[in-house]
TrEMBL record:
It is an enzyme of class 4 (lyase). The active site is at Y22, H99. Homododecamer. PROSITE patterns: DEHYDROQUINASE_II. One of its GO terms (biological process) is quinate catabolic process. Belongs to the type-II 3-dehydroquinase family. Coiled coil: none annotated. It comes from the Bacteria. The record marks R17 as: Transition state stabilizer. This is 3-dehydroquinate dehydratase. Catalyzes a trans-dehydration via an enolate intermediate. Keywords: Amino-acid biosynthesis, Aromatic amino acid biosynthesis, Lyase. Gene3D superfamilies: Dehydroquinase, class II.
Length: 144
């Protein structure tokens, strides 16, 4: 079972960007741990990051015939992108929305998520550990 882990804008700077909010681990560190956790669960993960909305949408479309599930941290597009919501709505498998920070404790503009309308599960506030939790939970969802 293949699972896509998609990361949106600015997450390439993870570990260097506002570490007091997002922590010191890089996206590469996180990806390495997700690959390991996925292996223990019998899953394969494909992990991608883009700063471009259209690129994320194209990957969500690709997932339609390639991936069983999607884990997505859409970054700030969470709060702005009906287009990403629509792309996820055209995907048939489970979707987990993930935020490193506890968005509801932050600025008001981070409290609303378009993506949550489609997400089966939302994880927020676990720091980067949320990615491993998402992989574990995705395994559960895919087992039915
Ligand atoms: C984020 C939260 C968003 O509000 C923010 O724009 C991000 C990261 C998180 O992982 O906590 O870029 O999705």
């Amino acid at each position: 079972n293949l699972v896509y882990i998609l990361n949106g804008p600015n997450l390439n700077l993870l570990g260097r960007r506002e570490p007091e909010i997002y922590g010191a681990d890089t996206l590469e560190d996180v990806a390495g741990r997700c690959t390991e956790v996925a292996k223990t669960e019998g899953l394969t993960v494909e992990q991608r990051q883009s700063n471009h909305e259209g690129q994320l949408i194209d990957w969500i479309h690709d997932a339609r015939d390639k991936a069983a599930g999607i884990i997505i941290n859409p970054g700030a597009y969470t709060h702005t992108s009906i287009a990403i919501l629509d792309a996820l709505s055209a995907f048939g498998g489970p979707v987990i929305e993930l935020h490193i920070s506890q968005v509801h404790r932050r600025e008001r503009f981070r409290h609303h998520s378009y993506v949550s309308r489609r997400a089966d599960v939302v994880i927020a506030g676990c720091g980067v550990h949320g990615y491993e939790l998402a992989v574990l939970h995705m395994a559960k969802l895919l087992q039915g």
